Automatic annotation (TrEMBL), chains A, B:
Transmembrane segments: none annotated. SUPFAM superfamilies: N-terminal nucleophile aminohydrolases (Ntn hydrolases). Pfam families: GATase_4. The keyword Cell membrane does not apply. This is Glutamine amidotransferase, class-II. Residues 2-292 form the Glutamine amidotransferase type-2 domain. Keywords: Glutamine amidotransferase.
Length: 292, 292
C-alpha cells in the first residue's frame, strides 16, 4: 500500500520536518520503494518533483529535504506498486490543468475492474488505476461545470466530489488527496489520518526517525495548519483517523467541510502489500483520537 | 530575450555538459535571471524541474547539473521576462497532456496583441503570451485530430504545426521548442541554432565557461544527437543557424523534416532585452555555418 502526505496552511510553511519522516517510509521504515513524488503550491505557482527511486535513497528526496520550499499546500506520495509498472509515468502525484489551474492528485488503494468511459479530455499517460481515477474525476468536474470560465469555489466542488467518491470507492480503496492549491480535498476508504496544528505549537517527535522539533519556534501565534497522512507522522500530537467513507476539505490550515457516506466499503489490502501497523499510542502518550 | 535549449538522441544521454554552459546564461554570461526550467523524457516517463531563481545561482540547477539524468529528449528554458510577472506559473517549459502523452513547450520571443479564442480545453495558468500560444497550439492539434484515440505520428503533426507557426509568428518572434518525447519540434522566427553530433565525436569547449569535454569518450560509434539552442553552446562544432520561418522536426538524434515559410517576419527585439552577441567564430575555428 502506498503512503500519502498532505499539508494545508494559512501562511507559507516548509514541509521539511514532516517530509523527513515521511521519506523514511520509502525503503527504511516501510517497503514503499517504487518511487515517490511531491507537489508544492508556492506563492507564485506550483511545481512538482518526481523520482522512480526509493525515497529513502533518492538524491532528489535529499534535495527536497534540504531545500526549505515555502508553500501553503503540499501533497506527496510514496509508491508501493499494486497496478502498473515501476516508472516515472506511474509515479504520483499526477497533474492536469483545468480552467487555468494546476490540479494534483495522489492515491492510495487498489481499484479493480475500474474502466470509466473517458472522453479524451483527460487521458492517463501511465497505466495505473490511480491516474485513470484522476482523469475520471477531472472529466466529471469539467462536465459538471462546463459553463464556467473560472474555477468553482470548494463549496461547489466538494459535494460533487463526494458523490464521485462514493461511486469510485465501490471499485476498491480510494484514499486520496486532490488539490488545486486553493483547497485540499481528501477521501478515506481505509486509512487516512489528519492533524490540526495551531498555537500553542508542541515539541513534536517523528515516528519514523529519531528527530524532535520545537514547532513553537517555527510558527507564529496566528499560524495554523493541517497535516494529513496515511499513518500519523508524529508521536506526540492528536492525530485523528478519518472514517471509511469520509470526504473532507481543508482550506488555509483548517478543516472546512466534512461528509460521510456510511455505505462505503473498506476493502482488504492486497496480499503482500500491507503497510506497517499504525503506531498506536498508549493512552496519554500520543493522542490518536477515535474517529469523530 | 530568453534562451532555449533542446536535445534529441537515438539513445539515452545526459545533458549535463550542455546544461552546465547553458545555465551560466541565467545570470552569469547573460542577464536571463527570471527563472528557468528543464523537462526530461526518460525511458519510463517524463519529469520537469522549475525554479523562479536565476539558473546560475539556483540550488535546483546545481542539483540538475550534478545528477546524470539519462534521457532521449530534453527541453530547457532560461527566462528574461518580457510579458508576465516573474513567477513559477510563468516559468517555461509549460506542460499539458494530450491523448495520453505529456507535451512540453518553451518559447523565446514576444507576441503582441495575440489573443486567440481558447475553447477551455487548454487554458493558461500564468499570464504570458508564451503559455497562451502553447494552449492555442494544443487546442488546434486536438481539433485537427479530434477523431484520434492515439497520438498522431510526427509526419502528420509537422505540416499542421508549420501552418500554425506561420499564423502565430505574425504576432511576434515565435522561436520555440515543443516535444511529446517522440519528436522534437522547433520553429525559428529570429534566433535558433542546431548542431548534429555523431561519430567521430569531437573535443568540445563551452562558450559560457571554461570547460572542455571529450565527447568521444562519452558516446559510442552508433550514437547520434541533435542539440538546438538560441545561441551556440560550444566553440568548436558546426552549429547551423535556422532561418527565419523555418520549422524543423528532430527524431532520435536526426533532423527528419524541414519546412520554410519565406514570408515570416523577424521582429526587432524589445528594447533593453537584447541577448548577448552570438559568439561568431573566426573562419576555420568554429563553424557557425551560414543558413542552409
Amino acid at each position: 500500500m502506498c503512503q500519502l502526505l498532505g499539508m494545508s496552511c494559512n501562511t507559507t510553511a516548509s514541509i521539511r520536518f514532516s517530509f523527513t519522516g515521511f521519506a523514511q517510509r520509502g525503503g527504511c521504515t516501510a517497503d514503499h520503494v517504487d518511487g515517490w513524488g511531491i507537489a508544492f503550491y508556492e506563492p507564485t505557482g506550483s511545481r512538482m518533483f518526481l523520482d522512480d527511486r526509493p525515497a529513502s535513497e533518492s538524491m532528489l528526496a535529499e534535495f527536497v529535504r534540504s531545500y526549505p520550499i515555502q508553500s501553503r499546500t503540499v501533497i506527496s506520495h510514496i509508491r508501493k506498486a499494486t497496478q502498473g509498472t515501476v516508472s516515472l509515468a506511474n509515479t504520483h502525484p499526477f497533474t492536469r490543468e483545468w480552467l487555468g489551474q494546476n490540479w494534483f492528485f495522489a492515491h492510495n488503494g487498489d481499484l479493480r475492474n475500474f474502466h470509466p468511459a473517458l472522453d479524451g479530455g483527460f487521458l492517463p499517460v501511465g497505466n495505473t488505476d490511480s491516474e485513470k481515477a484522476f482523469c475520471y474525476l477531472m472529466q466529471c468536474l469539467r462536465q459538471t461545470f462546463a459553463d464556467r470560465l473560472r474555477p468553482p469555489e470548494w463549496t461547489e466542488l466538494a459535494p460533487v466530489l463526494a458523490r464521485l467518491n462514493r461511486e469510485v470507492a465501490r471499485y476498491g480503496n480510494f484514499n486520496y488527496l486532490l488539490t488545486n492549491g486553493d483547497a485540499l480535498y481528501a477521501h478515506c476508504s481505509s486509512q487516512l489520518a489528519s492533524l490540526e496544528r495551531a498555537h500553542p505549537f508542541p515539541m513534536a517527535r517523528l515516528v519514523d526517525c529519531d528527530i524532535r522539533m520545537d514547532l513553537g519556534a517555527l510558527n507564529g501565534e496566528v499560524d495554523c495548519m493541517v497535516i494529513i497522512a496515511t499513518e500519523p507522522l508524529t508521536l506526540d500530537e492528536p492525530w485523528r483517523a478519518l472514517r471509511t467513507g469520509e470526504s473532507k476539505v481543508f482550506v488555509m490550515g483548517r478543516e472546512v467541510w466534512s461528509h460521510h457516506e456510511p455505505e462505503t466499503i473498506r476493502f482488504p489490502q492486497p496480499t503482500g502489500t500491507a503497510g506497517r501497523a499504525w503506531p498506536l499510542p498508549k493512552t496519554g502518550e500520543a493522542g490518536l483520537a477515535a474517529p469523530a
